[in-house]
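Long-time lurker. I teach an intro course on protein structure, and each term I like to show students one example going from raw sequence to a predicted 3D structure in C-alpha cell notation. This year I'd like something fresh instead of my usual example. Would anyone be willing to generate the C-alpha cells for the chain below so I can use it in lecture? Attribution to the forum is fine with me.
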Amino acid sequence: VEALRTAQVRARVNGVVQRRLFKEGSDVRAGQLLFQIDPAPYRAALDAAQAALAKAQANRAIAAELADRYKPLAEAKAISAQEYTAADGQRRQAEADVAAGQAAVQTARLNLAYASVTAPIAGRIGRAVVTEGALVSAAEGTLLATVQQTGRVYVNFTQASADLLRLRKAMGAQTGRTPGAGAGEVRIVLEDGSELPRSGRLLFTDLSVDPSSGQVTLRAEVPNDDGVLLPGQYVRVRLVQLEVPDAMLVPQQAVTRSNQGDTVLVVGADNKP
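-- Reply from a regular --
Happy to contribute to a lecture. Here you go:
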C-alpha cells in the first residue's frame, strides 16, 4: 500500500526550531503553519537589504539628474563628450545597483518566509522528527515531518510475465474472453483474510519486466476514507483478467500439481477414475 501523495517537510533555512504548531497524527491543510524557525536573523537581513536598496535608489536619482543635466551641455559642446559618457555610465551603474538591491530584498523576504514552515499538501501528518530547540540546516535539508494523503491509496502488486503471456495466448486462441461487467475492478484482501468491502480500480500495467524477478508491476487505486489501509501495509488483491466460458470450478484440494502440469481425477458412472 502506498499513499496517494507523500510530502517530506524539510528545512529550507538554517536556524533553531522555536515552536511546533501541530498535533502529531492529525489532519493538516495545505499551507498550514507547522514549525516556526527563529526568524530574527532573517528579519534583520531583510531590514539590511531594504536599507541597501534605499541607498541604491538615492544614488540612482543623483546619477540620473547629473546625466540629464550633462546631456544638453554635451549637445551644445559646453562639456566634453567624455564627461557626459562618464555621467551616463554612472546612471546605468546606479540602475544596476537598484536591480541588485531589489533581488537581495526578494531573497531576504523568501528566507524570512521559509522560517515559517508550512504544509506543502493537505493530508495526515506523522510524528515530528525534531523538537523545539533543535538546530536545523538548509544545506542538509533536515527532515521535520512527513505529510501523506491516504483518503485514497495506491496498491502496487506484481504478476509473473509468464502469466501475462498465457493470458494473451488464451485471448488470441479465443479460449477466454476479457471480462465484461467489473472489468478492472480490484478486490483487496486484508492480512486477516477478510475482504475490504469496497473495491478499487486498476490504473495501469507497467510496460517493462523486472529482469531480476520476471515480474510485471500493476497499480490499483482504492478508496480509503476510513483509513483501514496504511502506507507500507501488505495486502493481497483479486483481479479478474480473463473469463473462461463454460468452465467448471473444482475445489483446490482436488487438483494435483506436478512438473508435468495440473491434473484432476474424475470418477465415472461406473465408480472408476
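Some talking points for your students: The mean pLDDT is 90. The first helix runs from residue 40 to 75.
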